[in-house]
Amino acid sequence: MAIEIKPLEQFTIERLIPLHIGGLDVSYTNSALLMTIAVAVVTALIVLSSRAARLVPGRWQSVAEMTYEFVADMVETNAGHGGMQYFSFIFTLFMFILLGNVLGLIPYSFTFTSHIIVTFALAVVVFIGVTIIGIARHGWHFLTLFAPSGVPKVLLLLLVPIELLSYCIRPFTLSIRLFANMLAGHTMLAIFAGFAASLPLFGILPLGVDVLIYFLELLVAVLQAYVFAILTCLYLHDALHLH
Amino acid sequence: MTHGDPQEPLNNLGRRIEEARRAAGSAEGQREGQAQTPFAAAMAFAWRIGLELMVAIGVGTGAGWAIDRWLGTRPWGMIALFFLGTAAGMLNVWRAVTGQGMAVGYRQQQAARTAKDGRKDGD
After folding, report:
1. Is the predicted pLDDT of residue A4 greater than 50, yes or no?
2. Is A169 exposed, middle or buried (0-12, 13-18, 19+ CB in 10 A)?
3. What are the domain boundaries of chain B?
4. Do A163 and B104 lie within an 8 Å CB cutoff?
């Protein structure tokens, strides 16, 4: 009795509603479904809990207020003066990624943050947005970000390309970190679940490991959403203040 | 005025919450310090450092390859950008480890240095 273990099967994109517009495949997939659910859950949490807002918050209002305060605190301390202007964007980003990571941990669901194109799109939005904010705030002065002052002219020839490159790899590190963490964690969960299914008696051991990994993954899911949001705040700080 | 100032109960509540927080403060502060399990936090940091170096080299080499394809200068663009990418990766790792965050540039350090110098001058 050979049970086939396919740890990567969980990442397959399935077309739920096939849709083609002008030769483009814009089908509604399971990935899009989970994104819709994530957006719906966040919106419901914020709207419903603030509709009947009371001075002494109930459970749901308390959850909403805690997330708000958490993100507000993060923006305040990391993006610095003037960063609160972009609070709504960072809050949306954080909640969307958090919900994506956590909803993916529900058995039989799908983790849209485990696809690099999703995380890369988010990171590129952050990268382009932050660059535009920087240029809008400081004009051409923004480019002095790449040229350390007080350095011999000859060294600038070498340093400016290095700085430019280290600026341009930001969207890559930002997206790969989130995607790789999610992919690795979910693959590991599936592999251990496969062991548990294929071992007749001692399957209880990998099952126990799986439970532990699951809790670790829950921690990673929250931590990675936090890391994504906090790095966005730091990039924003750079653009706003040119350090 | 049996009800007093309408704000009165709120002030009272605020003060009570403040007092309760202060009473629980010491214990909570200790718990918060250990809340983030060192293992997960350390793993996240290690991930970040490794990724920083890998991605910088990868992106640098990839950009070099693309430039070569575009301008037909094989293999010089790839060689040059491989080394630049490695340098950028090491720079980013050094910045992450020395706690400068992901900042590009050197101004922060300079500002800190001049501030220190200024203080010295003041003394």
Report:
1. yes
2. buried
3. 1-35, 37-122
4. yes
In a domain, A4, yes or no: no
Per-residue tokens: A67 = 């997330």
Burial class of A12 by CB neighbour count within 10 A (0 to 12, 13 to 18, 19+): exposed
DSSP three-state, residue A15:
strand
A231 has a chain B CB within 8 A of its CB: yes
The count of C-alpha atoms lying within 13 angstroms of the C-alpha of A237, restricted to the half-sphere facing its C-beta, is 21
pLDDT digit string, tens, across residues B24-64: 654 444 444 444 557 777 777 888 888 889 999 999 999 99
Cα–Cα distance between B84 and B43 in angstroms, integer? 27
Q: What is the number of structural domains in chain A?
A: 1
Structural domain contains residue A2: no
pLDDT at residue A173 tops 80: yes
> Who contacts A207 (Cβ-Cβ below 8 Å, separation ≥6)?
A192, A193, A196
A145 vs B contacts (CB less than 8 Å)? 104-105
Residues of chain B contacting A234 with CB distance shorter than 8 Å: 101-103
Chain B interface, Cβ < 8 Å to A: 10, 13, 37, 40-41, 44, 47-48, 51-52, 55-56, 58-60, 63, 81, 84-85, 87-89, 91-92, 101-108, 110-111
Q: State the complex-level ipTM.
A: 0.76
Contact assessment for residue A79 and residue A86, using Cβ atoms and an 8 Å cutoff: yes
Task: Single out the residue of A145, A172, A125 nearest to residue B62, CA to CA.
Answer: A172
Four-point Cα dihedral B17, B19, B25, B26, nearest 10:
-160
For A20-54, the pLDDT digits (tens) are 888 888 899 999 999 999 999 999 999 988 887 77
Q: Which domain holds residue A222?
A: 9-241
Instruction: Give yes or no for a contact between A224 and A81, defined as CB atoms under 8 angstroms apart.
Output: no
Domain membership flag for residue A1: no
Rounded CA-CA distance A232/A61 in Å is: 26
Residue A101 lies in a domain: yes
